């Protein structure tokens, strides 16, 4: 019998695609904001600290930025007191509501922030430090809601970060994690002495009408303010002239990158690999044809988007596309329809800095091996192993009906978006639209079993993931 094309008929393996909880999209722009709005509130006059300093204080090791997504009751603790340890604020005394994004969207916000702050000795976390000084960014809407359209607000222009940790705010103004993150970065940067500049490529551009991915640019730009029409015009009242003039010709220009590098020093890469453990099935276990594959994955930094891929080697081979999950995660993948025989599952997880962890488990699916699924080469033709005797792909055998696994909408086409390593959802994962005469089998060549195998269905269902509670 000639080997069958793995993408035609019923002799194929169907693998449902994985999706990260929620829609964490780390690379999108805030398109849901109808018009450009000020990133920093024009209605709040910031305090100014350290304007007479000529040099920054010596950096006290790694600086910490705490992103508070969980909300809090803010206190008025006295003039100039914006202590993050005590939830003090000179700007707002009231309730900051929890951020509406799920765990994936939170992790995507922090991922964008780390991409921009990783050049400096700054650590971003969503865990409140137990001691020491740090900045806190409250991310969420206010109750009562503020008047006017703006994305965030900083309490001060703190030259050289001389006053230390402070509390600033970013409202839940867009569904875009990138939009949220860029606003957060501007508000925190104000508390490090950075002012608004004219370039749309720089994170200190004063409105949301910047380039899609602004950053801290290593170039001198004119310092500006917004006029009554929200248009940037030159700023004459410079708050931190000594900080700016060290790198630019005149105090009315600013080099955001060099100033932060002077204040905090250079960053260092994260070299710590994540942890990964396949907890079920156990090594050497014998399992039924229907079983759960369970694993745990975590990273030393939180939150973190971990990229997971799975490879199954054996009579029914399969491989998943990389998918992103927030760390830490306990994940369960229901599997059914594997042909009897010996298998190896290899799980690979990478963190945002490409540190990698691998775990491998060997197990056996109970039952008599199905002829033609061993993958041994055909000694007469050199073709992959083929079935002998009658064609077993008619759907008359148990487990070989060819019924495609259903997705959340009850269809047989796995059309769920695949979340990329950066959290971006792609729509190209739809596999039900096949060309070249494929009769809707929706199989992918890299997921196919040994050619000529009986019709097999591998359902690697939507992972049931939950985030472990922190100790």
Automatic annotation (TrEMBL):
The keyword Signal applies. Residues 364-440 are annotated as: Disordered. Residues 1-26 form the signal peptide. It comes from the Bacteria. Keywords: Signal. Residues 367-408, 415-434 have a biased composition (Low complexity). InterPro entries: Ig-like_fold, MYXO-CTERM. The keyword Signal applies. This is MYXO-CTERM domain-containing protein. It comes from Nannocystis exedens. The lineage of its organism: Bacteria, Pseudomonadati, Myxococcota, Polyangia, Nannocystales.
